[in-house]
Design a protein that fits this description.
The complex is a heterotetramer, with two copies of chain A, one copy of chain B and one copy of chain C.
Chain A: E1 2-10, H1 17-28, E2 34-47, H2 53-64, E3 70-77
Antiparallel strand pairs in A: 1-2, 1-3
Chain B: H1 12-22, H2 28-37, H3 40-43, H4 48-57, H5 60-63, E1 66-68, E2 75-80, E3 83-91, H6 93-98, H7 100-116, E4 121-131, H8 137-157, E5 161-168, E6 177-187, E7 202-207, H9 219-228, H10 250-265, E8 271-274, H11 279-290, E9 294-298, H12 311-316, E10 322-327, H13 332-341, E11 346-353, E12 358-362, E13 365-370, H14 372-376, H15 391-397, H16 409-420, H17 429-432, E14 443-445, E15 452-455, E16 463-469, H18 472-477, H19 479-496, E17 500-509, H20 516-536, E18 540-546, E19 550-551, E20 554-555, E21 559-568
Parallel strand pairs in B: 4-5, 9-12, 17-18
Antiparallel strand pairs in B: 1-2, 2-3, 3-6, 4-6, 7-10, 7-11, 8-10, 9-11, 12-13, 14-15, 15-16, 16-21, 17-21, 19-20
Chain C: H1 3-7, E1 9-14, H2 21-30, E2 34-39, E3 50-53, H3 73-83, E4 88-91, H4 93-100, E5 107-109, E6 117-125, E7 141-148, E8 152-154, H5 157-165, E9 169-173, E10 190-194, E11 200-203, H6 222-234
Parallel strand pairs in C: 1-2, 1-3, 3-4, 4-11
Antiparallel strand pairs in C: 5-8, 6-7, 6-9, 9-10, 10-11
The chains are: A alpha+beta, B alpha+beta, C alpha/beta.
The structure holds adenosine-5'-diphosphate.
Adenosine-5'-diphosphate binds next to strand 4, strand 5 and helix 17 of chain B.
Chain lengths: 84, 592, 235, 84
C-alpha cells in the first residue's frame, strides 16, 4: 500500500468564486493581511503498490479533476502518518 | 501583415466591409469587437430575413398588450392591474457540451440577467434539455453535469424551477441542447430598456471583475500581437490558449439581482444592459447604438481579475455576473452607495457623448473608434440558399402503418410498460428533485403540472403561467407543422393549468445555416410558428436562434422550442394536473 | 388579529445570498405578527422578540454552508441575545449557520447522496414542549418541503446521546424510503434539534413553505410560527 | 508576501460521501488498486509578511475548517511558483 496525495486547483485564469468569498470574509472579520485565496481540492488516496504513475495520472485527469478548468499535482507520500 | 480575421470567424467579404466602414485597417480591439458582434449568435445574420416574417404576421391587435417586443433583451407584456411580465428562452448548447456543469449554470445566469435588464424581478426559471441516447457513454458525462449545473445555479439564485423538458435522441449525442428560460415581473411603469442617452451621462460597469475566462477565440490576437510588437500590454508572450469556458458564481448573481432591483427602485438608471456573450463589446456597442449620441469608454477603468489583459481581451471577456448601466451624473454617488451596500464592485468606465462614435481608449490611446450601429445592428445579412431536402419525401412516406400493433392483452401490456419506462416518457423526478420549486413562496404549479404557474405578488391573486414544448421528431418530418404542433402543445398546457395564453417566445435550435436543407427547416418552422400565432391571436415577443448545432456534418433534429405565456386573474382557480385525486372523478376526453 | 399579536415582532435576517427570507417574513405576517428585516452587517436587532435565520445559500454556501455567515456582525448580536434567552430559529441554511456559530451542537454536512434534493417530506414532531413547537400535538406528523444539498446532520456519539436523552431532537424524518424516510444520511434521522431550554431551534426542512396549500404541500408549517407567538404573548 | 497552504480533511471517523463515491467510480471503471479515497480541501493563501503563525492558526480553526468534523495542516511555502 502506498499513500498518494492529489491536489486539484482551478486554473489561475478561471474565476474561483469560493476563494473570492473567503477573501471577503477575511477582510470583514479583521484580517487585512490576506491578498488572495484560492480554494482547491485535496485527495488522499490509499493505493496498491501495483498502481503506476501513469494510472494515477489517468484517474487524476479523468475523475479527480476536470481538465477544462482545473489543474492537478500528484505526490506519492512517504508511507507514514496521515496528512493531518 | 494579414490580420487573423478568419481565425476570428470573419469571412473575407465581412473583413472587407469592416475596412470600408472604418476607411482603414481595424485595430485588434475593433477586429475582436466586430468579429463577435457579427457572429451568427450575436447578429442573426442568417435568420434575420426569416424572422422578419413575425413582424408581418403580427397585427396591431396582437401587439396591443406588448410593451417591448423583438429587438429588446426580452419581450414585455402588460398583464393588467399595473403589472407586466417579461420572459425569454435562451440557448447555451455548445458551452454545455464542452463543460456540462458550468455551461448549463452560466446559461441560467445569462437568461436571468436578460430578464433583470428589463427592470423586472426574475421570479422563475425553466430548462429544456435534449441529450444523446440515454445509454450512450458520453451522455453519462453530459447529463448529470448539465442537470446539476441548472440546479446548482438556479437553486443558489433563489429562483423556483417551474418546468421544462428532457428528451433523448441520437442526433444530440455530440451536441446536447441546453435551453434555459426565465420569467420576470415588474410594474408596467417601471420598464427599462438598454439605451445610452443624454450626453454627459456616466457609464457604470458593476458586478464581478473582468477576467480571462470565456475569451477563447480572441487568444489568436494576443499571440499575433506579440510577434508584431512586444508591448501591446497583453501579459506574457507564452500565454497559453485561453479556455473558452466561463465559470459561474451564482452567489454573485443573486447579490447582483438584489443590488440592481434596489437601483431600479430608487430610480437611479437611464438605461441598463446585461453582459452576456460578447461581454463589453456587446454591451457598449448596443447601449451606444440604442442611444442618441456616442459613447466614450476608458478601458483602463475596467476592474480586472487578471494582470496584463489586452484591450481586445477586456472587450471580449465573457466573465459572468456583470451589468452595465447609464446613470445621470447627479445619481452616480447614490448608485455607487447601493453597490457598496451589497459589496458589489462598481466603476465609472465611460460617458455618453454626442460624437455619434463609440470611442474606446486604453492608457490614453484610442483602441476603438467606430459608428456603434455598424457593430451592433448593421452587421451582415445573408439570404442563404434554401432547399427542401431530397430525403424529406422518403421520410414522410415512412409511416407508422408498417409497424406491428399490439394484438393481445399481453402485447398491449408490454407496449405500455416499454413506453412508460422509456427514457423519453418515464418520470422526470430524477431531474425535478434536484431543482428547488418552492423558493420565494409564490409557486402555484410546477412539476408534475403541464405548465408552471407563479403568483405575481403576495398582495395580488394575479398569476403568470408558462409552458414550453417541442417535438423534435415531428419537426423533422414536417418543420412547418412541427413548430405549430409545439405552439399548440404549449398553448394547451397553459390552458390546462387554468391560464389564458397571451404571448409567445421561441428558442430555435437548428443545424448549420450553410446547409440549404437546414435553412429550409428554419424558414418553414418560422413560417409555421408565425402563421400559428396569427390564428391564435397571440404575438411572438422575442426569441433566440441557435444555429450550427451539429456533429460533424450531421445536424440535430430541428428543435424549435416554443414557450407560451399565460395569465390567470386568480391563482386560486388554477387546475391541478392529474387524474385520480379523488375517488369518483369523471374522465372526459375533449377534442377529436 | 389581537393587538397583542400585532405587537409581537420577529426579526428575519438577510445575508448576501439568503433566499427564503421573503418566505419566513410572509409566514410571520401570516400569524399577525410583525416581521422585522435584519441586515447581516448591522449589530442592532431592533428590539425584536425572536429571530429567524432563514434558508438560502448565504455566501453561496462556499467553503462550508453557513461558515462565512456565522462570522457576520449580526450573528454576534444574535449570539449575545440568545445567551439571554432570545428565541432563535434556524431553517435550512439557518440551521447550518447556527451550528457553525456554535449556538447548536454538531454540524450539517453534504447529503450522503451528494445531490441537491427537493421533495415534500414527512416529519415527526418529537418534542412539543418548546417555544417553537408548542402548537403541535405530541407525536404529530407533518408534511413540509425539504430542499438542500447539505442537510446531513452529524455529531459526536456523546453529543447525539445527550440530544436524544434530553429530548432535544425536535423533528425526525419518517416514512418509507426512497420517496420518504431519511433523505440525506442524517444521524438518527434527525431533521431538527434545539437547545437545552428549547429556545434555540433549527431544522433542515422548510415550515415557512408550508403555510398555504396553494403554494406548498400543506399548511403544517404554520404551527411553528403560531407556537412562538403563543410563547411571546404568555410573557 | 508569503504563500501559505492549508489542507483541511474530514476526520477519519466521519463519513466522507464524496470520497466514497470516487472510490466506487474507480472500482467501476477498472481501477481495482485503490483501497481508500478521502476528499479534503486545499487553500492557497497569499499573505502579507506581517501575518503570524498564530493568526494563520486562528483563521484555519475558525473559518477554513470546522473543528467538530475536520482537521487541518498549515504549511508556509517557499515563495516560488504556484502549486500546479
Ligand atoms: N428539464 C426540466 N426542468 C424542469 N422541469 C422539467 C424538466 N423536464 C420535465 N420537467 C417537468 O416534469 C413534468 C413532467 O414532464 P414531461 O414528462 O415532459 O411531461 P409531459 O409528458 O406531460 O409533457 C412537467 O411538469 C415538466 O415541466
Amino acid at each position: 500500500m502506498a499513500r498518494v496525495e492529489v491536489v486539484v486547483v482551478i486554473k489561475s485564469e478561471i474565476l474561483d468564486p469560493q476563494g473570492k468569498a473567503i477573501l471577503g470574509a477575511l477582510g470583514r472579520t479583521g484580517h487585512p493581511g490576506f491578498a488572495q485565496v484560492r480554494q482547491g481540492k485535496h485527495f488522499d488516496l490509499e493505493v496498491d503498490d501495483s498502481v503506476t504513475d501513469a494510472e494515477l495520472e489517468e484517474i487524476a485527469s479523468t475523475l479527480l479533476a476536470n481538465p477544462v478548468i482545473e489543474e492537478w499535482q500528484i505526490r506519492r507520500l512517504p508511507d507514514a502518518a496521515p496528512s493531518a | 501583415m494579414v490580420q487573423p480575421y478568419r481565425e476570428l470567424g470573419l469571412k473575407d467579404d465581412e473583413y472587407v466591409a469592416i475596412r470600408e466602414i472604418l476607411g482603414r485597417r481595424p485595430t485588434d480591439a475593433e477586429l475582436a469587437m466586430y468579429s463577435v458582434m457579427w457572429s451568427e449568435h450575436c447578429s442573426y445574420k442568417s435568420s434575420k430575413v426569416h424572422l422578419a416574417y413575425f413582424g408581418k404576421t403580427t397585427t396591431p391587435e396582437m401587439r396591443s398588450k406588448m410593451l417591448a417586443g423583438i429587438g429588446e433583451n426580452a419581450g414585455v407584456v402588460d398583464i393588467g392591474d399595473g403589472w407586466a411580465v417579461t420572459f425569454k428562452v435562451e440557448s447555451h448548447n455548445h458551452p454545455s457540451y464542452v463543460e456540462p456543469y458550468q455551461g448549463a449554470a452560466t446559461g441560467v445566469g445569462g437568461i436571468v440577467r436578460d430578464i433583470l435588464a428589463m427592470g423586472a424581478r426574475p421570479v422563475a426559471v425553466m430548462d429544456q434539455l435534449r441529450f444523446g441516447p440515454a445509454d450512450a457513454a458520453d451522455t453519462a458525462r453530459v447529463v448529470p453535469g448539465i442537470v446539476s449545473g441548472v440546479g446548482g445555479y438556479g437553486n443558489s439564485l433563489g429562483l423556483p424551477n417551474i418546468g421544462g423538458e428532457v428528451f433523448f435522441d441520437a442526433s444530440f449525442a455530440g451536441n446536447p441542447l441546453v435551453n434555459a428560460g426565465c420569467i420576470g415581473v415588474l410594474r408596467s411603469a417601471d420598464m427599462h430598456t438598454a439605451h445610452a442617452s443624454g450626453a454627459g451621462n456616466k457609464v457604470i460597469l458593476y458586478g464581478s471583475r473582468t477576467g480571462l475566462d470565456g475569451i477563447g477565440g480572441v487568444s489568436v490576437l494576443a499571440s499575433d500581437t506579440f510577434s508584431d510588437d512586444g508591448n501591446a500590454g497583453a501579459g506574457s508572450n507564452s500565454r497559453r490558449k485561453l479556455p473558452s469556458v466561463q465559470v459561474g458564481d451564482p452567489f454573485a448573481e443573486k447579490v447582483l439581482i438584489e443590488c440592481t432591483l434596489e437601483i431600479f427602485a430608487a430610480n437611479l438608471v437611464v438605461g441598463i444592459q446585461d453582459l452576456g456573450g460578447a461581454g463589453l463589446s456587446c454591451a457598449t456597442s448596443e447601449l451606444a447604438a440604442a442611444g442618441d449620441g456616442g459613447m466614450h469608454i476608458w478601458l483602463d477603468q475596467v476592474p480586472l481579475r487578471a494582470t496584463g489583459m489586452s484591450p481586445a481581451e477586456i472587450l471580449s471577456s465573457e466573465s459572468q455576473e456583470r451589468m452595465c448601466a447609464v446613470v445621470t451624473p447627479d445619481k452616480v454617488e447614490a448608485f455607487l452607495q447601493v453597490c457598496k451596500k451589497w459589496e458589489v464592485q462598481a466603476d465609472v468606465i465611460g460617458e455618453v457623448t454626442d460624437t455619434q462614435r463609440l470611442i474606446i481608449t486604453f492608457n490614453d490611446e484610442v483602441v476603438v473608434d467606430v459608428p456603434p450601429r455598424t457593430v451592433a445592428h448593421d452587421g451582415p445579412v445573408y439570404n442563404r440558399p434554401i432547399q427542401r431536402p431530397e430525403f424529406q419525401d422518403a421520410l414522410q412516406a415512412n409511416t407508422p402503418d408498417s409497424l406491428k400493433r399490439p394484438e393481445t392483452l399481453e402485447e398491449l401490456r408490454d407496449t405500455v410498460f416499454a413506453m412508460i419506462s422509456s427514457p423519453n416518457l418515464c418520470s422526470r423526478a430524477w431531474v425535478t428533485d434536484q431543482y428547488d420549486r418552492y423558493v420565494r413562496g409564490n409557486t402555484v404549479l410546477a412539476q408534475p403540472s403541464d405548465s408552471g404557474l407563479i403568483r405575481v405578488s403576495d398582495d395580488s391573486h394575479l398569476g403568470v403561467s408558462m409552458a414550453t414544448d417541442c417535438n423534435s421528431r415531428f419537426t423533422m418530418l414536417d418543420p412547418y407543422h412541427g413548430a405549430q404542433l409545439a405552439l399548440a402543445e404549449a398553448y394547451r398546457n397553459v390552458v390546462t393549468g387554468g391560464a389564458t395564453p397571451k404571448a409567445v417566445t421561441d428558442c430555435l435550435n437548428f443545424g448549420s445555416p450553410e446547409d440549404p436543407g437546414v435553412m429550409w427547416q428554419l424558414s418553414e418552422a418560422i413560417h409555421g410558428l408565425a402563421d400559428g400565432c396569427a390564428v391564435l391571436g397571440i404575438p411572438v415577443t422575442g426569441g433566440n436562434v441557435s444555429l450550427y448545432n451539429q456533429t460533424g456534418g450531421t445536424a440535430i433534429l430541428p428543435s424549435p422550442v416554443i414557450g407560451v405565456l399565460g395569465v390567470i386573474d386568480d391563482v386560486r382557480r388554477r387546475t391541478i394536473t392529474g387524474i385520480g385525486q379523488e375517488a369518483g372523478e369523471t374522465l372526459i376526453l375533449l377534442g377529436e | 388579529m389581537s393587538s397583542a399579536v400585532a405587537g409581537a415582532r420577529i426579526g428575519v435576517i438577510t445575508f448576501p445570498g439568503t433566499l427564503d427570507d421573503v418566505d419566513a417574513a410572509r409566514a410571520v405576517r401570516f400569524t399577525g405578527a410583525e416581521a422585522v428585516a435584519l441586515w447581516h452587517a448591522d449589530d442592532d436587532l431592533q428590539g425584536v422578540d425572536a429571530v429567524i435565520v432563514p434558508g438560502g445559500f448565504s455566501y453561496g454556501d462556499y467553503l462550508r454552508a453557513g461558515a462565512i455567515s456565522a462570522h457576520a456582525t449580526v450573528m454576534r448580536a444574535v449570539i449575545d441575545a440568545a445567551a439571554k434567552g432570545l428565541p432563535v430559529l434556524g431553517i435550512c441554511n439557518g440551521f447550518q449557520i447556527l451550528t457553525e456559530a456554535g449556538l447548536l451542537p454538531g454540524v450539517v454536512m453534504r447529503n450522503s447522496g451528494l445531490k441537491f434534493k427537493c421533495r415534500d417530506q414527512w416529519l415527526r414532531v418529537e418534542n412539543t414542549d418548546t417555544v417553537w413547537t408548542s402548537r403541535y400535538q405530541a407525536g404529530s406528523e407533518i408534511l413540509v418541503p425539504l430542499k438542500n444539498a447539505e442537510g446531513r446532520y452529524v455529531a459526536h456519539a456523546d453529543t447525539l446521546a445527550e440530544l436524544e436523552g434530553e429530548g432535544r431532537v425536535l423533528f425526525r424524518y419518517i416514512g418509507e424510503s426512497p420517496r420518504q424516510g431519511n433523505p440525506n444520511g442524517s444521524l438518527n434521522d434527525i431533521a431538527g434539534i434545539c437547545s437545552a431550554d428549547g429556545r434555540i431551534a433549527a431544522l433542515m426542512p422548510h415550515p415557512e413553505h408550508a403555510i398555504d396549500p396553494l403554494t406548498g404541500p400543506t399548511d403544517d408549517g404554520l404551527g411553528m410560527f403560531f407556537s412562538i407567538i403563543d410563547s411571546l404573548l404568555k410573557v
